[in-house]
Design brief:
Distance between the termini: 8 Å
CATH topology of the largest domain: MetI-like fold
Order of helices and strands: HHHHHHHHHHHHH
Mean pLDDT: 81
Organism: Micromonospora profundi
GO molecular function, one term: dipeptide transmembrane transporter activity
Shape: globular
Number of domains: 2
Structural class: mainly alpha
InterPro entries: BPD_transp_1_N (IPR045621), MetI-like (IPR000515), MetI-like_sf (IPR035906)
Family: Belongs to the binding-protein-dependent transport system permease family.
GO cellular component, one term: plasma membrane
Number of helices: 13
CATH superfamily of the largest domain: MetI-like
CATH class of the largest domain: Mainly Alpha
CATH architecture of the largest domain: Orthogonal Bundle
Helix content: over 70%
Low-confidence stretches: none
Radius of gyration: 24 Å
């Protein structure tokens, strides 16, 4: 287990390095000029060159990359040349909205998917199972932004139970929870419908395995065989899907934060792209990329710990 963990850790480090090179290179190749965006179209060539010198964008590519990656390794994301604020502090501030939103959405997804997915598998040949499968298909088909607009119309405009958008900050815990409730519900329903399909398929497949039939032949009831043997084995493929969904939620928050006007990481990223604040874009994209790679690393480790077949082959 230790050798496998170290090997995966090395792969994670190499992947992070490759991702940093890719992110920096692609953003450096984007058309446009930060100095031009700052000074406008009427700026003189002398003023533009002076500002490029101040921003450091006229330096060689390798020098700029080494300076950027060195700062990241020290925890310094640099200072935005356009807004003059620390990129790291901005990212940390926005994560205070995005991370709770993702955790709440994933919690709701699990609360939806696990019991309903198991029930749909157990009742797979009954009207209840068919109805649950149809419900999950409908949840997958509904676009997240449309569901968000629908919730705003019903609960904010008509019933006036929840705020339509915005975020007051965690100083007002009640207001913050209310602001995140509908966005988390949108993420939870969308991801819960997908995860429910995988839970159902995994449980149905495991319940047909020979060791389940042997357990039934030894006197265990269907529910006892499910609890003692099937759920643990069905959890193995679900863990992989769960990790992928966490990564998907990171990207999904970009849309949801803009629908509900939440000042999170995704909304900041879109604003920075429009403002040509490439240093903040680089830092934000690198944080999102590192989060996805870290999630995949943790999924591999947990998968290896849960599945004894992988441990025996390591």
């Amino acid at each position: 287990m230790l050798i496998y963990f170290v090997r995966r850790l090395v792969i994670l480090a190499v992947s992070l390095f490759a991702a940093s090179v890719l992110v920096f290179t692609l953003l450096s190749l984007l058309p446009g000029d930060q100095a031009q965006a700052r000074l406008g179209v009427n700026a003189t060539p002398e003023a533009l060159e002076a500002l490029r010198e101040q921003f450091g964008t006229n330096r060689p590519f390798t020098e700029r990359y080494l300076d950027w990656i060195g700062g990241l390794l020290r925890g310094d994301f640099g200072t935005s040349p356009l807004s003059g604020v620390s990129v790291g502090s901005e990212i940390v501030d926005k994560l205070g909205v995005t991370v709770p939103l993702i955790l709440a959405g994933m919690t709701l997804a699990l609360l939806i998917a696990l019991p309903l997915g198991v029930l749909a598998a157990v009742k797979s040949r009954t009207p209840i199972g068919t109805a649950l499968s149809a419900l999950s298909q409908a949840g997958i088909a509904v676009p997240s932004f449309w569901l968000g607009i629908l919730l705003i119309t019903v609960f904010a405009v008509k019933l006036q139970m929840l705020p339509a958008g915005g975020f007051t900050g965690w100083e007002d815990v009640g207001g913050a929870v209310q602001a995140l409730l509908m966005p988390a519900l949108v993420l939870g329903v969308a991801q819960g419908a997908i995860l429910m399909r995988y839970v159902r398929s995994a449980v149905v497949e495991v319940m047909q395995e020979d060791f389940i039939q042997t357990a039934r032949a030894k006197g265990l009831s269907r529910s006892q065989a499910l609890k003692r043997h099937a759920l643990r084995n069905a959890a193995i493929p679900v863990i992989t899907v769960l990790g992928l969904q966490l990564a998907t939620l990171l990207i999904g928050t970009v849309v949801i934060e803009n629908v509900f006007g939440l000042p999170g990481l995704g909304r900041m990223l879109l604003q920075d792209v429009g403002n040509r604040d490439l240093l903040k874009v680089q830092g934000t994209v690198m944080v999102l990329t590192a989060a996805v790679l870290l999630i995949n690393f943790l999924v591999d480790v947990v998968y290896h710990a849960v599945d004894p077949r992988l441990r025996s082959n390591a």
